[in-house]
Known about the structure:
It is a single chain. By secondary structure, this protein is mainly α. It has one domain. It has helices at 2-30, 36-64, 72-114.
Amino acid sequence: METQIVWFWFAFFLLSFALTFVLYFYFKSKGKKVKPYKKYAKYFFWPNLTITLIGILLTFSRYEKLTMLSWRFWVYVDLLFLIVFNAWYFMVRRNQLEDEIIRFHDTKRKEKWLRK
């Protein structure tokens, strides 16, 4: 039973690791036309990548039964960090992104008409 839970968490963190890369490249590709998406992608990628790598490390140490890192507590704390960070990022930063996109389009529109 214990190894099934460890494999579940290991698969979960690997999936979130892959999803981090997919979302990063998605936002970065949108950033070719609208510049604020590049910054949005960068600020999403690095913290999320770190949290998922720590989760993979903690589940691996649980599998290997290392002394302090194998506590179940750490995996759940890391999962909580992952959920809180992504919830904050996609709720709060999304509103800021929309404001930045509006400002970006306004400046592009002004540059278009004020060019000589």
